Amino acid sequence: MWTLALRGGARVAVVAAEWRDAFGVVTRGRVQLELRDGEPGPVLGRGAGFWLRGTGVRALRNPGRGTARVRVVTPQGQDRRMPFDAPVRELPSEGGTT
After folding, report:
1. Can you name the CATH fold of 2-78?
2. How many other CB atoms are there within 10 angstroms of residue 54's CB atom?
3. In this predicted model, what pLDDT tens digit does every residue of 27-73 receive, in sequence order?
């Protein structure tokens, strides 16, 4: 398991291989799915779970001001690179830095 932390207004690209068998649960704030055509998708609130495999979602975005968190569960023993080098990492708002 790992946690994705998105600061208010932040956006992170979804790399399909990194989310292949991952299941996410919003544990804080809200997360909006950005669809493959760039259009805004549904906004998921606290407690919402989601799979991204095969959906074509191209990014996750925090539409709020506070930090949103997504707990990500992957199968045990899965040998693949995770998208972030630490269990929790704050991501900057677009155009910002950490």
Report:
1. Jelly Rolls (2.60.120)
2. 8
3. 999 999 999 888 999 999 999 999 988 888 999 999 999 999 999 99
Nearest to 12 by CA among 80, 67, 49: 67
Query: What is the model's pTM?
Result: 0.74
CB proximity list for 60: less than 8 A, separation 6 or greater:
4, 6, 11, 12, 14, 31, 32, 33, 34, 70
What whole-number distance in Å separates Cα of residue 56 and Cα of residue 60? 12
d(CA 71, CA 23): 8
Pairing of strands 2-6, 88-91: parallel
Q: How far apart are CA 20 and CA 10, in angstroms?
A: 22
Torsion sign, CA atoms 97, 36, 31, 3: negative
**CB neighbours of 4 closer than 8 A, spacing ≥ 6?**
12, 24, 60, 69, 70, 72, 83, 84, 89, 91
